Please model this.
Amino acid sequence: MPVYTQVNEKVLHVTLAGEEVFARKGSMVATKGDVLFARSFLGGGGVQQLAMRAVTNEGIQLMSARGHGEVWYGHRGLHVSVVPLRGERLCVEADNVLAFDARLRAGTSFLGSQGLRGLASGVAAGQGLFTSTFEGHGEVALLSDGDAIGLEVTSSRPVSVDPQAYLGHKGNLDSTIVTDVNWKTLLGQTSGESYQLRFTGQGTVYIQASER
Amino acid sequence: MRLSFQSLPDDDNLGRFAYSIRVDGEMFIRKGKMIAYFGSMKFEAVGSSLVDILFKEAMNAPMHVNDFVVVQGQGKLVLGDNGLDIAAYNLEDATFTLKAEHVLGFQRTLRCQESTLPGYLTLIGSGRLLASSNGPVVFVEPPCRVDEEAVVGWADLPSPSYRYDYQYVQGALAAVGAAAGITRSGEEKQLDFYGNGTVLVQSSEDALGRPGRLASIVAQLTGLHASELQQLSREVSGRMAGRS
Model:
């Protein structure tokens, strides 16, 4: 198993003993030992996954690192947080992924099934309705503007988040888009919080302290 | 950092860039700065409904009213401000003047009024105040001089005055500058504080540059003469030429 440790809030250190790790292209800042880097097209998924990513714009250019040694990753001074997956499913915007374990199954999924209202808010938030998904046992390193905050959701405690501060979510969660649009919005008197993502179920929602 | 509803603080920072506060009733926050909440909450624009009849006491700053919303409900609210540092101040029968763009939120027990210094807000009374800043805030005891771009606000102090460098006042440059309408921005002009109290300074001279800043300047144009407006126009185009 590759070992993920954080050197500081912005740099991730990975120790490899024969395994493979995928990372955002150009995010490797240093390396030591016998590590082989290669451009990766598939990123852990199959050909179908690749096609999905190309169509849905959730693709990031990946590079794989394999071998025995150490690799340091960082990207544009953004904060890094490591999310361990133990059989759960993580949904995250592709832009916020720094690195992930090759053991994980990566894919793309459709986030909103909210009809037109959901579609409208996806456009408003400047984010797609498709997200990247990771499943299995392993680690995913997320990028965030400021430190990432994980909010635990239980069945009795749903959480609402600003779509622009949303990074991703883990576990068995349902998301709905709550709109707070009324006649006042049309007059230009918005509350600034007209669209919210509400998560119900059991799991963790990750947010960043910035609205992009 | 992983937090549940229970472990989320009632009134404390989450790291440097986010703040968690319990809401029980109403409070004011800057528009669009909610990043998450547990519980049931409603966000309404000030000046748009029956709420303002309730709050006309607390929010008495028509120039800045559109920058704030009223939060109503019960639960825990997480605020974030584009990666700016957030600090909380507990005011007890205090007078606290801040640059308007730094005010992130405040409880309705505080009264928010426009300062006589354009672009500044004064909060009077007791309650919680949240302020954002570019880098952590440093506290300075007067007498002191502070760069205007770096000042966040001051507590229990009379309004400051401008202090120019002696050489600048004496020099020929000042006379030429006044005639041509050019002033050098920066170190030759500072805010001068006297009295007993505290001055809050952010660790960067980069002002936050929110839209509210421009609004406060535009609102002052009403008192200007036609010739003064022309002069202003020349000043603005001169600055733009200098920047490009």
